[in-house]
Every structure is written in structure tokens, then in C-alpha cells.
Design brief:
The protein is α+β, with helices and mostly antiparallel strands. Helix content is 38%, strand content 32%. The protein folds into 2 domains: 15-58 and 86-134 and 151-203, OB fold (Dihydrolipoamide Acetyltransferase, E2P) (Beta Barrel); 204-292. It has helices at residues 2-14, 129-138, 205-291, and strands at 16-17, 33-42, 47-48, 55-70, 76-89, 92-95, 101-104, 116-124, 140-153, 157-167, 186-190, 199-201. The strands form 2 sheets. Strands 1, 2, 6, 7, 10, 11 and 12 form a 7-stranded mixed beta sheet that branches. Helix 1 packs antiparallel against helix 3. The chain is elongated, with a radius of gyration of 42 Å.
Length: 292
């Protein structure tokens, strides 16, 4: 992951930063090209938020049913499931002080697009005593509905990094867009067709690059720590194995030495025993001769 973030940061450092949207017209002869631009979100047909009275270019609504359920151990745990999730997007553009506009398409494919939380409403479930008792017996207790709405508000200043390309988008929905001289052909910002960064963020380009480099360094540091810990553990295992081997070899040498010592003692005892058996009959003969 660290290397991926590092490569992405290196890619962003090579992206051409355009200060004014009107300067994009000079890039029309080199399309497609990766650019980074900043501007305010503008749309001619803003979306109305469901929870608050704000205008938005993008609105994401998520509705969840929250409940308590009883597990096999008898304990009650909190859970949820999605009842409804919608994504609405109006045709929108980036606009600068000169009122030049750059339409942004395929924005759902963009990364780092952290939509602003416009509303978060929880509606408790209204149930009678009988229904609550039945839920209790069934091990299922509905708490209520949670309704969240996240938006990209009109007028928000964002940084967009993507592919500048020609498109036959509806020019009526993109008033003020830069025309390329051909009928219904305008400049748009989109996800790179051949792969590459496509980012919509509230951060400036240097901040995005710094954030990616920071993540890359952190991942590399964690990876190096794991490598160091792994090396230490492997070294400890090797040392322990070597110590066990040397200990076993030392014990084996002692056992071999003890076995040799015992064999020598047995051999010496055998020699003495044979000598005693040989000397005993001669003494008996001498006693017999004396008796005669």
C-alpha cells in the first residue's frame, strides 16, 4: 500500500497545475491530458436536499433500519440494514472568478470525494405494548429509522484532478463551458480512460500530495517495523535451535563417555574375574598334595 501511495503521489507531482480555467483552452491541441484545477461548484439545476433546505450538485441518501436482535447466548446486540440508498447528481461544473466553466463528468468514479454530511435524523419506531412484547419473544426489537444525507454543496471550492478531454455533452446544461469550435463539442474533466488519478477533494493539490506521501511513509515505517520484528523472531528461533542442538550434543557426548567408562570397567572386572578363576584350582591342588 505504501508503494502504491508513493507512486500515486509521484503521478500527481507530474500533473499539470492550471491556475485559471480559461488557460485550459490552450490545452485543446494536446487532448487528452492530465490536469489539476480548482474552482467553485456550479450547476444550473441544483438538487434540493431532503433533510435540509440546501442546494447541491451531488446528493447521496442512505436510510437504515436499526434494531436489536437476540443471539444464541441470550445477549441483545445492535444491528442495522440498509433500507434505501440513492445517488443523485445534477450536471455540474467548476467555475472560477472569470465565470469560465469546466463540466465534470463521471464524478462517482472519483476518489477522495468526501461528501459533506447535510443531515442525520433518527426516527424512533412507534409500537404498542403488544407489538413490543411480540418482538421481545421473537428476539427482534426494531429501534427506528436513521436517515443520512451527504452532499456536494453548490458554491463549495474543490480541487479536481483528472483527464481533460473533448465531449459532446449537452451544452445547454453546461452554460459557459469552453467550446472547441465544433458543434456540441466542449472541454470536460473526466476519469482517465487509460488509467490514472481521478480525484475530487476539498484539499489543495500540495496538501493531497503531502497526505499521500505521509501515508506512504507511515506504511513503509510499519512494514520496516514488521520486517525488523520478523527478523528478531527468526533470529531468536535460530539461536534457540542452535542452543538446543549444542545442549543435545553435549549430553550425547557425556552419555557416550559414560558408556565407554562403563565398558572399560566391565572389561577390567572381567579380566580380574578370569584371573581369580585360574588361580583358584592351582591353590586347591597344592592343598591336596599337602594332605597326601
Amino acid at each position: 500500500m505504501g508503494s502504491l501511495k508513493g507512486r500515486e503521489a509521484a503521478q500527481l507531482e507530474k500533473v499539470e497545475k492550471v491556475e485559471r480555467l480559461s488557460d485550459l483552452k490552450s490545452k485543446a491541441h494536446h487532448l487528452p491530458v492530465l490536469v489539476a484545477v480548482s474552482g467553485k461548484v456550479w450547476t444550473d439545476a441544483p438538487l434540493k436536499c431532503e433533510l435540509v433546505g440546501r442546494n447541491a450538485a451531488i446528493a447521496e441518501v442512505r436510510e437504515e433500519q436499526q434494531f436489536m436482535r437476540q443471539v444464541n447466548s441470550g445477549e441483545w446486540v445492535r444491528d442495522q440494514h440498509v433500507v434505501r440508498q440513492t445517488w443523485r447528481e445534477a450536471p455540474w461544473c467548476l467555475e472560477d472568478a472569470s465565470h469560465v466553466r469546466l463540466p465534470v463528468i463521471q464524478s462517482r468514479l472519483a476518489r477522495r470525494l468526501h461528501l459533506e454530511l447535510a443531515g442525520d435524523v433518527f426516527t424512533p419506531a412507534e409500537k404498542g405494548v403488544t407489538q413490543r412484547a411480540l418482538d421481545q419473544l421473537m428476539g427482534w426489537r426494531v429501534l427506528g429509522q436513521r436517515h443520512k444525507e451527504r452532499i456536494l454543496p453548490v458554491g463549495a471550492t474543490i480541487t479536481a484532478i483528472g483527464e481533460l478531454a473533448a465531449s459532446s455533452a449537452d451544452t445547454a446544461a453546461c452554460k459557459g463551458a469552453m467550446s472547441l469550435g465544433h458543434p456540441h463539442s466542449i472541454l470536460v474533466l473526466q476519469a482517465p480512460q487509460g488509467g490514472g488519478p481521478f480525484i475530487l477533494s476539498y484539499e489543495k493539490l500540495p496538501e493531497i500530495i503531502a497526505s499521500l506521501n505521509r501515508v506512504s511513509r507511515t506504511c513503509k515505517l510499519v512494514a520496516n517495523c514488521f520486517i525488523g520484528v520478523g527478523t528478531v523472531l527468526i533470529t531468536i528461533k535460530v539461536i534457540q535451535g542452535a542452543c538446543r542442538f549444542l545442549h543435545r550434543r553435549k549430553i550425547r557426548k557425556r552419555l557416550d563417555a559414560e558408556a565407554r567408562r562403563r565398558r572399560l570397567l566391565q572389561e577390567q572386572n572381567g579380566v580380574h574375574a578370569n584371573g581369580n578363576r585360574t588361580a583358584r584350582p592351582a591353590a586347591d591342588r597344592h592343598e591336596e598334595e599337602r594332605d597326601i
